[in-house]
Amino acid sequence: MTKKHPVNEKSKQEQLEQFKTDDRNQALTTNQGLKLSEDEFSLKAGERGPTLMEDFHFREKMTHFDHERIPERIVHARGFAAHGEFELYDSLSEYTKAKFLQNPSVKTPVFVRFSTVAGSKGSAETVRDARGFATKFYTEEGNYDLVGNNIPVFFIQDAIKFPDLIHAVKPEPHNEMPQAASAHDTFWDFVANNQESAHMVMWSMSDRAIPRSLRMMEGFGVHTFRLVNAEGKAHFVKFHWKPVLGTHSLVWDEAQTISGKDPDFHRRDLWESIENGDYPEYELGIQIIDEEDEFKFDFDILDPTKLWPEEDIPVKLVGKMTLNRNVDNVFAETEQVAFHPGHVVPGIDFSNDPLLQGRLFSYTDTQLIRLGGPNFHELPINRPVCPFHNNQRDGYGRQTINKGPVSYHRNSLAANTPAPVPESEGGYAHYQEKVEGRKVRSRSESFKDHFSQATLFWNSMSAPEKEHIISAFSFELGKVKSKSVQQQVVDMFANVSTVLAKQVAQAIGATPPSGEDAPVTKSSPALSQEQTIKKPNTRKVAVIVANDFSSDLPQVLNSLKQQGIQPEIVSTTLQNVKGTDGSELEVQHTFLTSDSVLFDAVYVVGSSSADEKFRKEALTFAQEAFKHFKPIGATDEGVKWLQAAGLDSSPGVVTGETTRFTDEFIEAISAHRHWNRHVI
């Protein structure tokens, strides 16, 4: 018998050494060793033209990136989804021939997947990050995918840089840290050295990056698309989803705490809302620009780092989407759904936005590795509701059983079927845009303004929102180890606001810029969440109750419920609590199983029979809510407890008799946050 020897660890290490490489101070090449003269721009037909298929460097770089992870998505891995339907308000035949945008009486089935971008599938949901907002319309002409985010712009202008962005924001490869966070050196080094990211970074450091709920989050198509009507006339368009409940966010300390208390916070909120019949609703909005007005503005409408200010190009609300059914199986539906910006229907077409052009290649390429081959469209969640026929055959995961001998176009054995359909009968035909130009790796001069809209965003923020942005920069850069990177970022954002840069510099010990901000000449109120819709509907209130509660309490709870507010009883145990009149209330949570950050407001009722431990637990709830600027209510014994803790005389804190308390507390809940509160 052969004698077994222990593994020689040194020889194993030496074996691995031959595969190690240090890319520093080396020339940039393809994987075939070809030296590259350019890595900033994809190959285009003219500076503002479409990306060319012959760009082998772009395809190699993007293909490698798309196949880097198995099996979860490289980006948008952490997601949750729901089914619903879309209804049109009025026909859009003036702009498009897409059938699902013609008849207001037709309901189009939809499937929507929300997601974080940077984290792995197992990461928390309330991290600071952009959120995916991808909608699949199952139309009678085929599937249409509106694949967007909750931020209307992006970090980069050309898809060839997307692998670089994601490599920078993902956990650093030498230690695989930090997970689902941008507060580290490589991300901010990327930002400082790719200043086209300035506008998106302002959004990412704002409250928009930590939404309160997926139900209270805007969605944007990001790119400029085209709508084409039956006469062949085209308009440029941007798509928006406007939540009916308004756009609302968490505060940072609250978001961090929730990550530990309930890393499934957003999906739980969406799931429970649908199960309760509080269906999330979003209105579809479009911004329209005539083709002849393409160069009318002080920004390039094809630049994905730019938005179209709503005050200049109004958003027309054209329909409503309602999510009314949860998935039956997360893997089969949420995980196997495959979105692609190139899934379009007649009447919707593309622009030459170089980020969009790259996505048209990348998404299909990604699905090939993630879902095992070219037949991902046959998975139940991806199948269109209309029939589909072509000469594609075989491959991994094939479910269709094709009959007959013919699998090629132009044939006589099957009467040349399946046959192309003329455009006049619904066949898709690309918009015939005239394209001229030399084959170049370049970008239009009109894309080089990186700071004006970042400044517009800053100028549009309310005072609390600006404070939050400053704090976000200070936190993120405070985690960066490189003093050089910290200083580069401060210097970069001095181009946005010296007020912002100076305060961040002071917080992280960098050298502040000189000078002052220029007078504000333009702002966009639509960008501030202070202008959003504010309703009490579906807001969750922790009602802290012990035995011997007042007989008035059920009346207060009923009044809250009538306004769409969701009171949930919190007590010491899950045993029912009893009132002085013998009535009982079911307890949903204990102090051990819940936390103040999981609610939108706190209502302290207490009881004269409650012990000191109960009182301390109740005050912990109230004090944390107070710190996060949330509404707080108190009646009965709870009033005394708030008074003793010094919490009773601040904005958004409502105490008193039942007759006036209920209306005032509902009003406080409707305001959501009380920023004028002095937090102690």
Automatic annotation (TrEMBL):
Keywords: Heme, Hydrogen peroxide, Iron, Metal-binding, Oxidoreductase, Peroxidase. It catalyses: 2 H2O2 = O2 + 2 H2O. SMART domains: Catalase. InterPro entries: Catalase (IPR018028), Catalase_AS (IPR024708), Catalase_clade2 (IPR024712), Catalase_clade2_helical (IPR043156), Catalase_core (IPR011614), Catalase_haem_BS (IPR002226), Catalase_immune_responsive (IPR010582), Catalase_large_C (IPR041399). Residues 521-532 have a biased composition (Polar residues). The active site is at residues 76, 149. It is an enzyme of class 1 (oxidoreductase). Heme binds at residues 73, 113, 162, 359, 363, 370. This is Catalase. It comes from Priestia aryabhattai. The lineage of its organism: Bacteria, Bacillati, Bacillota, Bacilli, Bacillales.
